[in-house]
Amino acid sequence: VTLFGTVGETGERALLRHLRQRIPAGPRVKIGVGDDAAAVETPALTLVTTDTLVEGIHFRRDWSPARLVGRKAMSVNLSDVGAMGGTPRFATVSLALPAELPVAFVDGLYDGLLERAGEASVSIVGGNVAATTGPIVIDVTLLGDASAGGVLTRGNALADDHLVVTGALGAAGAGLLLLQAGVRPGQEAAASPGKPSPEDIAPDLIAAALAAHLDPAPPFAFGAAVAESGLAHAAMDLSDGLSGDLAAMCEASGVGAFVDAEALPVDPAASAADRDAALELALHGGEDYQLLLAVPEDAVDRLRGVGDRSGVRVTSIGRFVDTPGVTLRRAGEATALRARSHEHFRSAGRAR
Amino acid sequence: VTLFGTVGETGERALLRHLRQRIPAGPRVKIGVGDDAAAVETPALTLVTTDTLVEGIHFRRDWSPARLVGRKAMSVNLSDVGAMGGTPRFATVSLALPAELPVAFVDGLYDGLLERAGEASVSIVGGNVAATTGPIVIDVTLLGDASAGGVLTRGNALADDHLVVTGALGAAGAGLLLLQAGVRPGQEAAASPGKPSPEDIAPDLIAAALAAHLDPAPPFAFGAAVAESGLAHAAMDLSDGLSGDLAAMCEASGVGAFVDAEALPVDPAASAADRDAALELALHGGEDYQLLLAVPEDAVDRLRGVGDRSGVRVTSIGRFVDTPGVTLRRAGEATALRARSHEHFRSAGRAR
User: Fold this and answer.
1) pLDDT band at B193, cuts 50/70/90?
2) Which of A129-133, B181-185, B287-291, B292-296 has the lowest mean pLDDT?
3) Does A196 sit behind a cis peptide bond, omega within 30 degrees of 0 on the bond before it?
4) Global pTM?
5) Taking CB atoms and an 8 Å limit, are A12 and B39 in contact across chains?
């Protein structure tokens, strides 16, 4: 069944019925969507996380096709379960939808949600829809199996541990700058006024930056492999930006840290989008959804080996230290690295 | 720490830190709020449900203190887990909040969420906040232990089963009518224009009707006792109204049903609020959050005994039948009982 028209014309019940028909059965799902609750087979220790995307704050309909919004709503939760070393299993999806929204957009959201869930072997087991007079709100709650190797928290980093990150940083922040400058997915070649100037940038790097922001690919399976290996003391995902997230890990662990600027794996897309600001994007840009890990020195090489087998780049960018505070070491100088992660409420306040 | 001012002035991070400090540790919670995900001890079969309250659609700030909104956001989920025969255990709470909202309101929400969770021995293990430019959205996901006696679905009602409901029906619908007529909690004696006319109604019945709508008390522990007893074939909660929910159970079970109007346990608050419409409120009013059960004839008396021990009234109001469709029998006449549950999108659409 394909539905036409708006969410309001379709009605809550018919829309819910339509969406539920799209959700396939999954392994370990005894009772799926359509009853008062789902019933799923769980191990002794289950991870639970929830994260929300709000239209106008976390995504814009004119920046991103619905499918990518759906993928991202799932991906940000995959990132959280991966950062605890778990394996994602079951998701519930709550949508608050304005009456005038085309049903085609909701179908697009579900295209992305189901596609991304399928890639991660996650079953959607609850799909709620509610009416709203405001922007679209997409709330995903994800359950995962904790690893038999233990749960990776952010509170266990020790002084002298290496400060390790996965992948490269700054591409998502660069993508946001490009979107703000008017560049859109599929129109990487179309220039637009403003800085950074997209016409100077290779289209494939523009595409990579946009994809990093709109369709992040957190290394969640690697997170489970790290927990399994027992090689890391602590982990968290880089959602707010390295500066803020590292400060949070240090606070939770009761340690400090330094970051070696020269060692930072700055994404080529960040350098291409804005060479002067690339380091800033890598430090503060946020939404890279890579992992931040605390790894004892004698385990760094073995962790790199785990990364090689998962196709995940692992880079030591500094160390945890006894004394509180985070410093940035650059060209022989050490300066305080202040958390500059953005605050949605404040920017929303400013936008008024 | 008490915070003053608005959510926007406080900022996402400080608000989150404040709320997380309010959430106590709980049994079987290995890792609670504050990390990328929580880690909780789960049995072999876990129930999962999610439900949302949207300001202006499901609640109004001028109708209800924040504490009751928080209680209701938890209660509607307790109802769903109870209707599957489970025992509620762990909840995540996602809030989308406008920047201009006073932090005191958010604290009031958490007063109610934590109070209701405590009453049900539920631990809040995830507490997310996001900025929004629209109305408040409160999304609660609840995990519960499935009963060793099995999971109660809505799809297993058999012809000849008794159609059984808990409690009394229509009070929540009466409460909604009173709220729409201008009556507010704590001002039960203050009359206001419009029908029903509250000055004719005993204040305690007005209070009961308002409480039924604003602070529902689903018999979720009785749901678990029913599953344990093995006495019911099917169960679901009465959230949309008996007419709509019974149609849903019949459809899921591939049966029909009749309801004996004279047997319906109409709540005295419904009769007091609008004597002529009391039956309509009981049939279509919705949000009573009582249970609808399919019970084989030889088990009805024993189920009544289970109810007596839980302080829950159990009433047989009809039967399931082989032929599809739901009929209402009244004064010797049988008429089709049409689902007249409200549709939020449609009423939202009409309100424009």
Assistant:
1) very low
2) B181-185
3) yes
4) 0.95
5) no
CA A159, chain centre distance (Å): 27
pLDDT (0 to 100) of residue A4 = 82
d(CA B147, CA A1): 36
Q: What is the pLDDT of residue B340?
A: 86
Would you state the pLDDT for residue B169? 98
**Summary count for chain A: helices (H), strands (E):** 12, 13
Confirm if B281 and B170 have CB atoms less than 8 A apart. yes
- Please give the structure tokens belonging to residue A322: 């006894």
d(CA A112, CA A67): 4
Contacts of A200 (CB under 8 A, 6+ apart): none
Q: Do A42 and B44 touch (CB under 8 A)?
A: yes
- Distance (Å, rounded) from C-alpha A345 to C-alpha B245? 39
Q: Determine the 3-state secondary structure of A347 from DSSP.
A: helix
Can you tell me the distance from the alpha carbon of A339 to that of A331, in angstroms, rounded to the nearest whole number?
A: 21
Q: Of B80, B86, B42, B49, which Cα lies nearest the Cα of B225?
A: B86
**With contact defined as beta carbons under 8 Å apart, do B243 and B338 qualify?**
yes
For B48, how many CA atoms within 13 A lie in the half-sphere containing its CB? 36
* Nearest Cα to Cα of residue B117 among B9, B206, B32: B32
Q: How far apart, in whole angstroms, are the C-alpha atoms of residue B125 and residue B25? A: 8
- The DSSP annotation for B33-52 comes to TTSSSEEEE--SEEEEEEEE
Please tell me which residue, B12 or A258, carries the higher pLDDT value: A258
Under an 8 A CB cutoff, do A30 and B48 touch? no
- Pairwise CA distance, residues B284 & A165, whole Å: 57
Question: Per the structure block, which two tokens stand in for B16?
Answer: 């989150």
CA B39 remoteness from chain centre: 27
Q: Which two tokens stand for residue A193?
A: 């006024």
First to last CA, chain B: 41
Locate A115 and state its tokens.
């596609």
Interface residue of A132, A156, A243, A350 to substitute, partner B, most B CBs within 10 Å: A132
Which of A119, A341, A84 has its CA nearest to residue A228?
A84
The secondary element (H helix, E strand) that includes residue A29 is strand A29-31
ipTM confidence score: 0.94
Q: Do B349 and A9 touch (CB under 8 A)?
A: yes
Instruction: Indicate the DSSP class of residue B266.
Output: B
Cα dihedral B265/B270/B272/B278 (nearest 10): -80
Q: Give the closest of A58, A96, A236 to B54, CB-based.
A: A96
Q: Which helix (H) or strand (E) holds B295?
A: strand B291-295
Residues of A in contact with B81 (CB under 8 A): 36-37
SS3 call for A200: helix
- From A141, A313, A148, A327, select the one nearest A230 (Cα to Cα): A148
A285-295 residue pLDDT tens: 999 999 999 99
User: How many Å apart are CA A338 and CA A78, to the nearest integer?
Assistant: 28
Of A34, A40, A153, the CB nearest to B48: A40
